Amino acid sequence: MGATQDEDTLDDIGEVLETIADAAGIDAEVEVQERDGAIFAEYLGAGDDLAILIGHHGQALDAIQHLAHRIAFHGLDARKPLTVEAAGYRARRAEALRAVADQAAQAALRDARPVPLDPMSAQERKVIHEYLKTRHDVETYSEGQEPSRHLVVAPAGP
Predict the structure, then answer these.
(1) CB atoms inside a 10 Å sphere around CB 64
(2) 92-155: which CATH topology?
């Protein structure tokens, strides 16, 4: 019996990620699994080497994730979210973004004005949107055009 489409997709993602690591001269293993209807792939290896795959503010990792998603799901109707992680970068960055969100929310409420954040990727903006959406005292929205698109944290309206 042959592999299922899901197994083929996981294999394709693994192959793409391994090819990218090899091309960058990085000795890293790739682990790919499906969890709760989403695909999680992780580069495993020495953290300093993996920094090349992460890039400045995760830009290389975002590009790798986008590329792997496009290749793995090309021509398929059913697509699943894909997250590519390396050396725990995304988890550490999400924690830092939540701290920035808390500070911005406090400032917005204290000063009763919107607080614009620095430009960030759509994925990072989403982390903050999702984190603050449970609060009823502030709201978030994005402004500007890429690559200067940024998030604004403002006191919630009446």
Answers:
(1) 23
(2) Ribosomal Protein S8; Chain: A, domain 1 (3.30.1370)
Q: What is the pLDDT of residues 12-30, one digit of tens each?
A: 999 999 999 999 999 889 9
CA–CA distance, 52 with 61 (Å, rounded to integer) = 9
Q: Which two tokens stand for residue 136?
A: 């009823």
- Both tokens assigned to 114: 């919107």
- CA dist 54 and 49 (Å) reads 9
Residue 123, φ and ψ in degrees, nearest 5: -65, -40
Instruction: Please give the model's pTM, rounded to 2 decimal places.
Output: 0.80
pLDDT in tens, 102-130: 999 999 999 999 999 999 988 899 999 99
**How far, in Å, CA of 24 to CA of 1, rounded?**
36
Sign of CA dihedral 128, 134, 140, 141: positive
Tell me which long-range contacts 75-80 makes (C-beta under 8 A, separation of at least 24).
76/5, 76/9, 78/5, 80/9, 80/34, 80/37, 80/38, 80/39
- What residue spans define the domains of the chain? 5-87, 92-155
CATH number of 5-87: 3.30.300.20
